[in-house]
Amino acid sequence: MVITVLVLLAALLASLAARQFASGAEQIEQNTGPVLISTQGLVASIAEADAANTAVFLSGENEDRQQRRLYETALSRAPQQIEDISSGIGDDERSHDSLKAVASQLTEYAGLVERARLSNLAGDVDATEQLSASIDLVSGSTGMLANARSVTERTQASFDEDVSSGTVEWISAVALLAVSLIVLLVAQGRLRKRTQRLINPPLLLATGLIAVLLVWLVLAQVGRVSDLNTARESGYDSIALTSQLQTAAFDYKTQEARAIIESNPALLPGDDSLEQIDILLIGLAAEADDNREVSAIAGLQTRWDRYVATSDRIRSALTSGSDDDARSLAIGDGNRDFNGFNTTVESVLLANRDQFDASVSSAANRLNWLQLGAVLLPLFAAVLALAGYQSRINEYW
After folding, report:
1. 167/7 Cα distance (integer angstroms)
2. I need a labelling partner for 94 at 20 to 30 A (CA). Which of 136, 202, 260, 269 fits?
3. End-to-end CA distance of the chain
4. In 10 A of CB 76, how many CB atoms?
């Protein structure tokens, strides 16, 4: 009777743990994971739109069509990304409020950009002021990027909760299964002494079933946590670093263009901006865990160095008073070199997203059939344990 109660209670806890594991994995695969990636994509889209728009403004009356196209493409991605994020964050009201703020600011931003663009084409003196207002709406303390990052922080907390879901039930189930296993082994020893029978097949089979479930639960949890940690550390953390790098680079380019537009070298990005980007590049290199990623990041460093070399020429021209030369370099070599860098960033992001998705899928696959097995194996074990004792009772009836 004691064995039956222990085994059935273990079945209940194991089933609850398996259900929590499956629910957490599904939440990560269908909601938390996509939201994290989409939010990073939204941040990148906003920053790219801002950098491209500033480049268009810099080109003056002869608008740079390529940069204008980049601006329009980045801006058109953002509403769909907001919708994707909104559909995945569930009932998190604070995240929904942040997204509503981004959506509202995005509309305001597009209006400011168009007004600045038309004023710039018309040669109005307030065009630069309107451009500055649009930039502040992107990167200000309450701007779009700040609101998007608040969604990221809350989603990261949800990811951690999903990873740890079912841990208490799992520990309890493993403990009870271990106790059940010990009790079954003791019971077989006592029966062997009393009946002089070496083996009790039903009890032996029941012990095997409990041992199988115990090992299955342990391996599923260890593998699941390992896969999700890989998804977080090698996948998402790299995505976040790459997105931060991309955003910092866009911000660098925007500051540079703004300095040229206002003929003010004091507005040029400082050494701290370059240092931040260098730190992010070093961090990405440290996160690389395969040859493909190492090669991509090496290419990223080369592309960035090429752009910085052009940026140094722009800085020299602007500080020496050669505004036209600085503008010409920015809309020529500067845009070309930066576009090469950005294309390489996108390839790194794609590789990291693939790695994240593969690790999350692997975690979910480890849970296949576990919930059913957590119920059936202990039930069969309980029936076999009763049968094993009943067969010995019948022998002495």
Report:
1. 19
2. 136
3. 19
4. 11
Angle at 160 between CA 82 and CA 237, to 5 degrees: 65
What's the CA gap between 364 and 26, in Å, rounded? 7
pTM of model > 0.70: yes
Q: Tens digit of pLDDT for each residue in 13-57?
A: 888 888 888 888 888 888 888 898 899 889 989 989 999 999 999
Taking the C-alpha atoms of residue 322 and residue 324, their distance in angstroms, rounded to an integer, is 6
Give residue-wise pLDDT tens across range 85-137: 999 888 889 999 999 999 999 999 999 999 999 988 888 878 888 888 998 99
CA distance 94 to 101: 11
3-state secondary structure the chain: CHHHHHHHHHHHHHHHHHHHHHHHHHHHHHHHHHHHHHHHHHHHHHHHHHHHHHHHHHCCCCCCHHHHHHHHHHHHHHHHHHHHHHHHCCCCHHHHHHHHHHHHHHHHHHHHHHHHHHHHHHCCCCHHHHHHHHHHHHHCCCCHHHHHHHHHHHHHHHHHHHHHCCHHHHHHHHHHHHHHHHHHHHHHHHHHHHHCCCCCHHHHHHHHHHHHHHHHHHHHHHHHHHHHHHHHHHHHHHHHHHHHHHHHHHHHHHHHHHHHHCCCHHHCCCHHHHHHHHHHHHHHHHHCCCHHHHHHHHHHHHHHHHHHHHHHHHHHHHHCCCHHHHHHHHHHHHHHHHHHHHHHHHHHHHHHHHHHHHHHHHHHHCCCCHHHHHHHHHHHHHHHHHHHHHHHHHHCC
Residue 196: left if φ>0, alpha if ψ -120 to 50, beta else—which one?
A: left
Q: How many CB atoms lie within 10 A of CB 393?
A: 9
On the 0-12 / 13-18 / 19+ scale of CB atoms within 10 A, 377 is buried
State the sign of the Cα–Cα–Cα–Cα dihedral 243, 352, 298, 332: negative
> Would you call 186 exposed, middle or buried from its count of C-beta atoms within 10 A (0-12, 13-18, 19+)?
exposed
- C-alpha radius of gyration, the chain, whole number: 30
10 token code pair: 């273990």
Amino acid at 289: D
Could you give the angle at the alpha carbon of 396 between the alpha carbons of 395 and 397, nearest 5°?
A: 100
